[in-house]
Amino acid sequence: GTAQIGVTGLAVMGRNLARNFARNGYTVAIHNRSYAKTESLVADHGDEGTFVASESVEDFVASLARPRKIVVMVKAGGPTDAVIDELVPFLEEGDIVVDAGNAHFPDTIRREGALREKGLHFVGSGVSGGEEGALLGPSIMPGGTKESYESLGPILEKISAKVDGVPCCTYVGPDGAGHFVKMVHNGIEYADMQLIAEAYDLLRQGLGASAAEIGQIFAEWNTGDLESFLIEITADVLQHVDAETGSAFVDIVLDQAEQKGTGRWTVQNGLDLGVPITGIAEATFARALSGSVPQRSAAVGVLQAHTSEWDVTDRDAFIEDVRLALYASKVVAYSQGFDQIAAASAEFGWDIDRGAMARIWRGGCIIRARFLNRITEAYERDANLPLLLADEYFTGAVGNGVAAWRRIVAGAALHGVPTPAFASSLSYYDGVRAERLPAALIQAQRDFFGAHTYRRTDRDGTFHTEWSGDRTEQTA
Ligand code: NDP
């Protein structure tokens, strides 16, 4: 075979990835379970480059130059296993299978192990940027062996997004590392979206501003530190008018947020690793609350509020407070997400370079943002930074906004505006910087009812107090 790269699974994502490879000059072998999608790709876009279409898996594999590089872009879960099982009998030692779908990282660890035993490379790769990213340049997060990256990496880097000429693709780490980082990316995306939604709600309720006016505020914010894809599209969405009713589009959309599950995976993993990713968790639960229809129906007009009108006197100062609170909360969410990556990296032996992850998220993906440069710089200053928030740049940038952040969270509480992500991020900030936490009391309680023991501040050792007896302390 002569094709340099193959793509199987030609729905929206696979089709656009295949076109992206072809547009970049690669000869692309294409295949799909049902041949119609393969034919339509050739018919609609065959002139964009060189495609080699195959109807059978056997012909598809045979059309590729060795070592073969095959990108699988099918529905995550069972379908991915089914496609791998069909491919494997035709593959030879050294061939590379790339799963570019949204796999859950434990599945990727399992698949990598199984293919490694057969002498094959399995690359679990996160791909972010949706349909448009796949076509014009996504952010790509490939895991697997370093050896596989030597031949595959340059091709993926070529089709990835570029920022300042630097590709938004780099080797992430062994087996499940790529899909893990993509999962955390999606979790951070949840947090970012929730924080933006809270900022919108605060501006709406605090200022009584219209959606379009708030859209203009977001457009203004997009020229500063908050510049990002999500802020940009928020400005656009808020200024969009529903053609049918003439109302602001956001006002005719049902307020029940859905999810495909990557946020849930991120939160579940945060619990497994014991990493407080409160921003991502609150964002995921806020979606769940919005969809809790019976509970919301039972509560509306029934639960007492005891709030007063939010009488904002200085409009510009209020807008600036919300902006600063949004920025600070956003830094917390990222700081927590990067802690989660560090914890998983240690747990699974992945050796992930966090600064490099921030770098490949600068373009192509949904959370692309100017401020990611600052994160890369922070990890360049100290690759083992224990807390992103405590980096010298972020202590200053967040410190500038702390007073505003407190005003906003306190005001939201007084006036009954739900701000789970803003408020929990501020609590995290105060918790992590506290010299002493009431966790001491929790340890005492645990020792009281369960003899779970405690350590002391003044000397080493593990102790237990005889709570139900004479209350003497024993060395445990
Ligand atoms: P879908 O997730 O809708 O999957 C459809 C594709 O899977 C079709 O090619 C279909 O083949 C194939 N397929 C389904 N079941 C099987 C099976 N048992 N055997 C063989 N092929 C099967 O496609 P998308 O393009 O939306 O997404 C592809 C992957 O990319 C998913 O894992 C998704 O999570 C991920 N992703 C999607 C993004 C997006 O914005 N959509 C963004 C980032 C990642 P057929 O045509 O024959 O039915």
Strand content: 5-15%
The whole-angstrom Rg is 25 Å
Indicate the overall shape: globular
Helical amount: 40-55%
Main beta sheet strand tally, sense and closure: 7 strands, mixed
Q: Please, how many helices?
A: 21
Given helix and strand content, the structural type is alpha/beta
**Could you tell me how far the N terminus lies from the C terminus, measured between alpha carbons in angstroms?**
69 Å
Bound molecules: NADPH dihydro-nicotinamide-adenine-dinucleotide phosphate
Number of strands: 11
Q: Report mean pLDDT, rounded to a whole number.
A: 97
- The residue ranges in which pLDDT falls below 50 over 5 or more consecutive positions are none
The largest beta-sheet arranges its strands as: 3-2-1-4-5-6-7
Protein name: 6-phosphogluconate dehydrogenase, decarboxylating
Domain 6-phosphogluconate dehydrogenase C-terminal: 178-468
Pfam family, one: NAD_binding_2
EC number: 1.1.1.44
